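**Polypeptide and fold**
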Amino acid sequence: MLAWLFWHLERIERIHAVARSLVSELGVEAYAEARRQEREAQNVGAARDWRRVASVVARRMSRRAPVDAAPGPTPLELESAGEPTWMLPEPTQPFLIQFVCGASDRSETNVTERPIQAADASAAIVAAASAAWPPQTIGLRILDREGREVFAREKAKRT
């Protein structure tokens, strides 16, 4: 029982080390990379570990205030063959985040735009969620390179 507990704790530490490394190397694209590795895993155990890495990355990214800040680099050391392996990240593409902000008297709205680089639309959504939002933001749109809307969300109206 004690040996199993030590094995389990070591596995958790390896998963957290991989997540730290992903965040430090890829920033906001870390979650998308972990999910891509999960989809491309060769066995169920590796897919499960990548799913856990993605979960840890998502928790870390939700606590980060600035998009560009990342913890210092951590060496990635995986001991067994069934553990996640590294591949080069996918090339990034430009996206534009538009924050729709309302005035206090609700008469006018303005749009604040922020360009970002992300691997895909899901990584752009994670980046938008991690970004510092302007005050009085009432909605959000993410546009791809051609100006097409790939994601939009409005805050729920309070009564």
In short: Helices lie at 2-26, 30-39, 44-63, 121-130. The longest helix spans residues 2-26.
